[in-house]
Write a structure and sequence with these properties.
Order of helices and strands: EEEHEEHEHHHEHEHEEHH
Shape: globular
CATH class: Alpha Beta
CATH architecture: 3-Layer(aba) Sandwich
Helix content: 25-40%
Largest sheet: 6 strands, mixed
CATH superfamily: P-loop containing nucleotide triphosphate hydrolases
Strand content: 25-35%
Strand order of the largest sheet: 6-7-8-3-9-10
Number of helices: 9
Number of strands: 10
Bound molecules: adenosine-5'-triphosphate, magnesium ion
Amino acid sequence: MSARPVIEFREVRYSYPGGAEALRGISFAVAQGEKVALLGPNGAGKSTLLLHTDGLLLPSAGEVVVDGMPVERKTLSEVRRRVGLVFQNPDDQLFMPTVEEDVAFGPLNMGLAPKEVERRIDSAIRAVGAIGLRKRSSMQLSGGQKRAVALATVLAMQPGILVLDEPTANLDGRTRAALVHILERLDCSCIIATHDIDMARRLCSRALVVDDGRVVADGPCAEVLARPDVAELLYL
Ligand SMILES: Nc1ncnc2c1ncn2[C@@H]1O[C@H](COP(=O)(O)OP(=O)(O)OP(=O)(O)O)[C@@H](O)[C@H]1O
Ligand SMILES: [Mg+2]
């Protein structure tokens, strides 16, 4: 890899308080513009790994580095400007009275000028096809609509690194296809945890497979998915 990676995990370990070790020495690096699928069975550690990308969890051992900065308490606000994390459950992301206030929250927090905030809201809501939902209450949307709005809240911050946890879960075919299309056009670096192998193949040049807190495969998506051990692990 020639350029400095945009995000790097170095032997990251993590144990939940009072729980078993969920990450057992995870190492990988993502290059600028790369789209990486994070695959693995339920409980493998995908969400735990993603929560480390923007410092919502800090490693028990090892290190996460974003744009050359170690992720630690004093770098959190810088890290969160660069890494946009969309949670597995959209209810964890939406907390304002209306959709447009939810989408405005990040840009306002970044201290952007009102005109720029307005432009960001507009383009993010448009990107996820949610124009008609703008004045609605986030709490009263369907599961798929919430997912789209949760993505818009993060797109509005224009992160260089977009991290998505199961973005296509519970989406109907049409909404899913639209989402894949949005993600195809983004030129940021992405890490996408998913059980949606078809989306992984379409979107991601690379696949990282985790099992029981360890990386068991990392390489070009098609090659990784063709491996018999991966096919067995993922029930392909
Ligand atoms: N808040 C928590 N407290 C304690 N243990 C947890 C917590 N969250 C997850 N775990 C445990 O950590 C391990 C990894 O869970 P994680 O949610 O990262 O898996 P995942 O790969 O995202 O699974 P899924 O595909 O079901 O979303 C599992 O054994 C899980 O039980
Ligand atoms: Mg998960």
